[in-house]
Every structure is written in C-alpha cells, then in structure tokens.
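Quick one:
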Amino acid sequence: MSPTMSETENALTSLLSRSEAGARCYLERLRGSKVVFTNGVFDLLHRGHVE
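Output:
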C-alpha cells in the first residue's frame, strides 16, 4: 500500500536536524522516556515472528 500525499507531507515535516533530534532525546529522557532508533523500515514483534 502506497502512502497518501498527506502522509508523505506529514513525514517530511516531522524530520529533525541532528541538533534538534539530540535536544528532543535529551528532553524525552528527562521525562523518563526510553529513546530508541531504528534504521529504515521496522515491524513490531508479533506472534507471527516467533512461531
């Protein structure tokens, strides 16, 4: 399924610079959140992966 134009535009406007990403990670850690990164497309672990 291809993304819609609005989904693509939303993804492009949500990109952060390296310094913005660092600042955002710092703030999220202060809030007690765990920050993780993925490379490319990812899929959540679900039952189909372990059967």
